[in-house]
Every structure is written in C-alpha cells, then in structure tokens.
C-alpha cells in the first residue's frame, strides 16, 4: 500500500464527503458469523468527535469526486475548481478493514460523485460492499448512497450488502431543485428511494414465512435536506420530511444547515453564518414528531410557518396552547405528560413509575431530572405551592428566558450585547 | 436475639459481596456496613465478621433479585463496579427495599436509594460505552491488537462480550493499567491476564518498538481523516469536549497532538 498516495486521496475524498451529516450506525441486526470480523447488532457507537462537535462513527468518504453534474449547492459540482481523486475499490476495502480492526469506526459510509452514468457509479459502490461482505467476511455497518437515477436491479443488489441506503433529496422544494440543480430531475431521487422502500417491505413480509430470506438493508433508509439555501420555510422542510417518513418509511431525515461552498448568486454568500440554531430547532421538531406524539400541523401551519428561534418548539407550542395547562403530574396520561415543556421521555417514564408508589412533589421531579424552570409554569403536583398568577404567554416566555441560558443565545440576543 | 447492625468484611469480588448480602439477610442484620478487606475503616459498629466467598450463596442472592427484577440485577452489578466509596451498604439497603416490597421497587423513581443506584449504574454504563468507543488497538509485532485503558470504573468485565463478538478473527488484549489486569482473546476465548508493563502507552508520540511500522502509517491515515472530516465553519469546541472529555484524550491517537 502506498500510504502517501492514499493519504492524499483520503484528504480530498473525506473532505468532499463531510457535508453528508448522517452518522448513524445503529438499527442493524447483522451478527458476526463464522468467526469473521465485525458485528452490528448493538446500539450505534460514536468513536470520536471532530472539533465541530459532530460524531465520527463511520469512515465517510466518496469513491470519487469526479462528477458529471453541476448542482450549485455541492462542493463536488463539475464547474468547481477543486482537486479530483478516485479510490480504487481494493483501497477502500483495505482502509475500512484496517480502521475497523483498530476500533476506529463502526463501518463504512460510501458515497460518490457521479461519473460516466448513475448505473456505472452505483455498480462500483456495490462492488466495494460486496467485497467487504464476501471476501473479508465483514459484518460491520455499511451505509451506501443510492445514486439518483440508478436502476432497480442495482438498488436491489445494493440492499443485499448494505445495512442502510440513502438518497439525499437536498432541496426540500421542487422549485428550489429546478433552480439549483437544473440537470437533476425530482423523479431521479424518488425512484431508487421507492425501490428500496418496496424491497424493505417485501423483505419484512417474506422473512415472516421464510426465515432464511437474505437480509435487505436492515437499518432502513434515510435522506437529508439542506436548510437555508433556497429561502424555504420551516413548514416546507418539515412537511416534506413528514412526507418522506410516511410514504417512504424513512428511518431518519437529516437536516443540514447550508454551508456556503460557492460564489453563486442563487445561494447565500461564502462566509455567511451556518444556520445552526435553525437546524437544531428542526431536529427538535423532528423528535417531537417521532417520539412525542405531536403531529406536524400542530407545530407548523400557515399561521406559524416558521419555528420560534428563541424557545424550543415544544415550549412554543405550549405557549400557544395554554388552555391545555396546567397538567396534574400525578394524574395526567402519558401522552399529555410528554407534551409538557421541560419533560423528556425519560422523565415521563420515571414519573409514571414513581407515582405508583406515592404522589410526586417538586422535590421528586427535580431529582428525576425534570427541567423545572420551564415545567413549573405548566404543572401541578403534590404541593400547595404552584404558579397561581394568571400569566399570559409573553410573560411566561420572558420569565423562562430570563432564568435559562441557551447555547445559541448570543446569536439572537441584541439586549445582552449592550453589556459586552 | 436479633442483630441490627454489623460490619461485614468481604474480599472485594462481586460474589464476595453477594455472599455478604446473604449472611446479612440470614442474620437479619438491618444495617450492614459491608466493607472491602484492605480498605476497612473503623466501623460504625463494633461487631465485625469476615465473609468467605461462597458461590452457591452468591448465586441464591443473584437469582432472588433477578426473580424480582431484571433491571435491578443489572443495576446492582453496574453500581457495584463503580467502586464508589460506601457503595456496598447502599446496595444492601437497596436490596432490602427490593426484597421487602411486593411491587417492583426497582422502578420507584420517587425513592432516593432507587434513584441513586440508578444514577450510579447509568454512570458505569456510560463509561462502558465510552470504552467501547474510545479504545484504540495498536498492532504489535506478535500480531496482537493491543490497547491500554484507565477507566473511571471497573468496566473490563462489562466490555468483554462486546469485543469478543466483534473481533472474533484477531488476537487482542485490553489492559486496565489502573487496576493492573486485562483481557486477552487468543482466538478461542477470553482470559484474564496481568502484565508487567513498562512503557506501552496508547497515545505516545514516540514510536514504540513493540508495534509494526504499518501501525503508525494507519494511525497517520486516521489522524488525517479526522482532520479532513471536520467542518471548520461549524467549529464548536464546547460541544467537542462535552462529547470527548479531556481525560479521554489520552486514548485517542487522533488527539495525540492535543494531549
């Protein structure tokens, strides 16, 4: 192995792959067989974190950054003047195995620029995965990119070796896609997505009858949307995400604050701030939809097309719906407990179990880890001491903001700046 | 006559602890100050008994608790491995509560002792998970993937299975430098070993003769990858150190320069 040359390629092709935010290595069920290498049955593991605070779980690289497309938002677009490189298939296999053996990674996340044709590219990605599985008896995690426009046959084959497949929709609106990626068609993204979804459905039903049915993408599929590149609203993004969760059985939708990589009038300028807080609010909303029983139109609708930047979306919802509160901690059902600001699902679990033994008071809640600074305005418990004032939403919001420190506060607070 | 308080000295093993619990229950001791031998402190209670580990008795306690709750049995083992000062009497108290209640006391999160044991078990679980993440093997010239660790808690027994099922086709050693014992997988099974280690550190900038040359090439590639995959315009060092607290940097070859 020529380490110097590999190092150079790794530089270029890891740098180009880093804008894909998916890092998940969980949700698969591949066990180590015949004393091979690797196992991906457990929960995901983040083996390290880069200085931007993102986790490093998989070796995330492109096979090549040569690309025939010219999507404005993409660093690998053909008109961009960057160094190009391409890994040989065996090089990717060797890197993956050697990193895995040293416990650096959970597996491989392989994507690629599109060279020659979508099918040609997809075929190469599959070859890497197949080699890892068959030649190396590798049972670690493999995430392959579904190349837009790849044929159904190849998408079927990809799922036999990969744990997860993903196509990044990138631009949440069709008009945005037309503007920024004129040579890509919306349908090209959807076609492989639909094939993978159908195969997963088929695999799950056949597995019930024939246990030996070969695994097909056991960790499901995911997609990613860029946030803040085309002036879309939070409502556009989350309705689009809901559509993908519902109609394509997505395991995850990722939101990626747009990082300017091009001097292009259609896009935010190079050097403009990455909308990290907005991204954070979108993830919070995503969690409320998937785990807290909210439906998307409660959080975002025509009257409220964008999320409140100052407070989290659950608190924001509660402030708009004060008629549901206060909630009695000792009586309310699970779904209502989950809607109280400052109470997460772990606290819900503790409350439900703890209250079987005795009525819970403020002290109990505090020890369980409830964020009382937010929750106290919305609950009753076993105490005569509760918020009696008839506060309106603005007052409550003001009081909560005063007693809390947000990690992004300096980005939107103009008042505090006076004192700096 | 009923004993209500007593100091019980055990050998430091988990089975020894469970035996002490057995003796405590047998003698109907309401407050048992169970202490590790060698670390005993002049007790609260005058009366002292040394416990001899008895696997049969330990098993009866283990099964008894497990019949009450699977969560409890796991929490007890994890909390025990925290080696926290005074953990044994706290666990004794917890087990008394478990056995004395008809309900599943292990899920009573309004009870201080239950909450405390849960939190401790959680901490140990987190350390276990961190070791599964942060261990970095280095390939020795004898073809063994070697790693040293100094975990906050005694988590080696908890991570054995994870590494065994993952690295079934390579020999590996994970050595706890702090507690002076390690796990050695020889392609057949895992055994406990103790080594006389002089200077093998995971994260030394200096190359060590024990490791292959290729080893350092791969570390170089990995460090390179680590740098390339960072997005500079999103820099967030606070979040970075929150996820990888500085005390773990010594394990990580990608943080070599920073240590």
UniProtKB/TrEMBL annotation, chain A:
Every Radical SAM core domain range: 62-237
A Pfam family assignment: Radical_SAM
Gene3D superfamilies the UniProt entry points to: Aldolase class I, Photosystem II 12 kDa extrinsic protein
Source superkingdom: Bacteria
Key words, A-Z: Iron, Iron-sulfur, Metal-binding, S-adenosyl-L-methionine
Cofactor: [4Fe-4S] cluster
Name the record gives this protein: DNA modification/repair radical SAM protein
Organism: Maribacter cobaltidurans
Automatic annotation (TrEMBL), chain B:
Highest taxon in the source lineage: Bacteria
The organism of origin for this protein: Maribacter cobaltidurans
Lineage: Bacteria, Pseudomonadati, Bacteroidota, Flavobacteriia, Flavobacteriales
Occurrences of domain DUF4130 (ranges): 87-254
Protein name: TIGR03915 family putative DNA repair protein
């Amino acid at each position: 192995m020529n380490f110097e040359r590999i190092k150079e390629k790794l530089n270029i092709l890891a740098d180009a792959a880093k804008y894909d935010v998916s890092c998940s290595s969980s949700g698969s069920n591949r066990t180590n067989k015949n004393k091979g290498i690797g196992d991906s049955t457990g929960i995901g593991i983040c083996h390290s974190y880069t200085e931007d605070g993102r986790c490093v779980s998989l070796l995330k690289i492109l096979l090549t950054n040569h690309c025939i497309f010219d999507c404005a938002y993409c660093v690998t677009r053909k008109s961009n003047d960057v160094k190009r490189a391409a890994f040989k298939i065996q090089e990717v296999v060797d890197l993956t195995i050697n990193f895995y053996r040293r416990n650096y990674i959970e597996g491989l996340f392989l994507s690629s620029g599109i060279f020659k044709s979508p099918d040609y590219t997809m075929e190469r990605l599959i070859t890497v995965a197949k080699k890892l599985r068959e030649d190396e008896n590798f049972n670690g995690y493999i995430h392959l990119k579904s190349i837009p426009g790849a044929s159904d046959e190849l998408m079927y084959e990809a799922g036999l070796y990969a744990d997860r497949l993903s196509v990044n929709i990138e631009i949440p609106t069709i008009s945005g896609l037309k503007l920024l990626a004129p040579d890509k068609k919306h349908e090209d993204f959807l076609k492989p997505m639909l094939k993978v979804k159908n195969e997963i459905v088929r695999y799950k039903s056949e597995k019930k009858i024939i246990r030996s049915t070969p695994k097909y993408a056991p960790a499901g599929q995911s997609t990613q949307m860029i946030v803040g590149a085309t002036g879309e609203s939070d409502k556009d993004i989350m309705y689009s995400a809901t559509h993908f969760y519902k109609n394509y059985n997505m395991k995850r939708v990722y939101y990626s604050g747009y990082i300017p990589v091009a001097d292009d009038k259609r896009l935010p300028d190079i050097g403009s701030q990455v909308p990290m807080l907005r991204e954070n609010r979108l993830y919070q909303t995503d969690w409320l939809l998937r785990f807290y029983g909210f439906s998307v139109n409660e959080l975002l609708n025509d009257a409220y097309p964008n999320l409140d930047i100052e407070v989290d979306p659950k608190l924001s919802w509660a402030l708009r719906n004060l008629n549901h509160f206060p909630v009695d901690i000792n009586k309310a059902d699970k779904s209502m407990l989950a809607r109280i600001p400052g109470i997460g699902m772990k606290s819900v679990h503790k409350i439900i179990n703890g209250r079987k033994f005795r009525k819970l008071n403020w002290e109990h809640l505090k020890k369980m880890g409830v964020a009382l600074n937010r929750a106290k305005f919305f609950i009753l418990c076993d105490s005569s001491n509760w918020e009696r004032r008839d506060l309106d939403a603005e007052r409550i919001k003001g009081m909560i903001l005063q007693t809390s420190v947000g990690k992004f506060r300096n980005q939107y607070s103009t008042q505090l700046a006076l004192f700096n | 006559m009923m004993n209500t308080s007593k100091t019980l000295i055990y050998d430091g093993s988990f089975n020894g602890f469970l035996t002490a619990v057995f003796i405590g229950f047998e003698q109907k001791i309401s407050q048992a100050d169970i202490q590790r031998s060698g670390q005993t402190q002049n007790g609260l209670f005058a009366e002292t008994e040394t416990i001899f580990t008895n696997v049969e008795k330990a098993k009866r306690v283990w099964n008894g608790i497990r019949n009450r709750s699977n969560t409890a049995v796991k929490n007890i083992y994890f909390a025990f491995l925290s080696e926290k000062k005074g953990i044994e009497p706290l666990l004794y108290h917890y087990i008394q509560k478990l056995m004395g209640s008809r309900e599943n006391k292990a899920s009573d999160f309004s009870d201080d002792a239950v909450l405390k044991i849960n939190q401790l078990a959680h901490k140990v679980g987190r350390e276990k998970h961190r070791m599964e993440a942060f261990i970095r093997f280095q390939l020795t010239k004898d073809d063994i993937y070697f790693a040293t660790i100094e975990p906050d808690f005694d988590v080696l027994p908890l991570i054995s299975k994870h590494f065994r099922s993952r690295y079934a086709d390579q020999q590996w050693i994970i050595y706890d430098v702090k507690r002076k014992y390690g796990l050695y997988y020889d392609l057949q099974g895992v055994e406990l070993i103790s080594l006389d280690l002089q200077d093998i550190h995971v994260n030394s900038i200096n190359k060590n003769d024990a490791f292959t040359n290729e080893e350092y090439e791969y570390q170089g590639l990995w460090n390179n990858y680590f740098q390339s995959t960072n997005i500079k315009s999103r820099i967030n060092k606070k979040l970075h150190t929150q996820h990888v607290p500085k005390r773990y940097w010594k394990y990580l070859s990608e943080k070599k320069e920073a240590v």
